[in-house]
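Tokens for HTH cro/C1-type domain-containing protein. Go.
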Amino acid sequence: MTIDVRVLGQRIADARLRAGLTQAQLAAEVSLDRSALAKIEIGDRRVTALELSRISAAVDERLEWFFQEVPQAIASHRNLLDPGGASPAIDRAVERRVREVEFVASAGSGLDLPVLESREMPANAEAAEELAAEARALLDVPADGPLHMLERYVSKAGILPFVVDLGPDSADAASILLERGAVVVVNGSLKVGRRRLSLAHELGHVLVADEYSVDWRVASEDSVARREGRIDRFARALLLPAKDLHARWPREAEGSDGELRTAAVRLGSEYRVDMATLARRLQELDLVGPSDAAAVRAVRTVRADIEELNLVVADELPVDHMAREYIAAVLRLYRSELISQARTLELLFGAWTVADLPILPMRSAEEIWQYV
């Protein structure tokens, strides 16, 4: 396969930037002069196979990545620090998973993802609430009540979530809408409440096929913030339906002898949301004022709360989580011996070991002779 030298140079530069390396750092890593690497990146010098192999190892990309087309997709991020801004670590994580999902789906694994129908971006808060209700119907869950194990429902709908520990400086989540299905990466360094909110947020982006992050450099910050605000409203409404809170909050507050903290701890635990999300939701539904919302936001659940209030501690979306449908498809390929053991572990992103894989039956002499 041939590729234009300038295109290859640009891919090398992209990989270096995503790995967080300067030209000097990468050049030193692969035993090149910085000037030579600079010429490679702008296409003024060809890169040898050995040099590209070293670069591939240094930036932690498979060699074929430099020659493959970038997935044609609509991407979005949930990036609280810089809405719509770039996040190289999560970009890299989600792109890699997209490639592997597309490979598995095309390799006869039985991973049949649906074409996802896109909806209109909510124009206001009321439309965001309506989209949340529509999403619950799409996921085939009750219109009211806590939505536990959200990842299972979105997986069944063809939106495959993966959890990767990307550290506190990366975006909360990212999603890519494919021709069939979608892939979401959630930053596993977040606490469980924010992981769930981030997955709900990306579900919103997938449903409206929002491509703001593709052209974030030319979009105004205000328009990005407004779109993100409406998607966040959708995510809160999905996890905390308005009807539920209007009924539950007064009862919880009264049943806790008027103690706001206890009521917040109970609801936060039952709906598995963080206190910042609960406070924002209570205030936007006019159930509390600004001072009480600030008090809820400041609540921290401690071990004594878990024991005394008999709370259920759940760790949804743990690090290295992958959609069950994806894992099952990979294992079908392995059992059929369509992929090697090493490739299987690669498709499972290092979260599995050889000991975790099923034991394949020994082939009979007659079967072996068929191959010979």
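The two ends are 30 Å apart (CA to CA).
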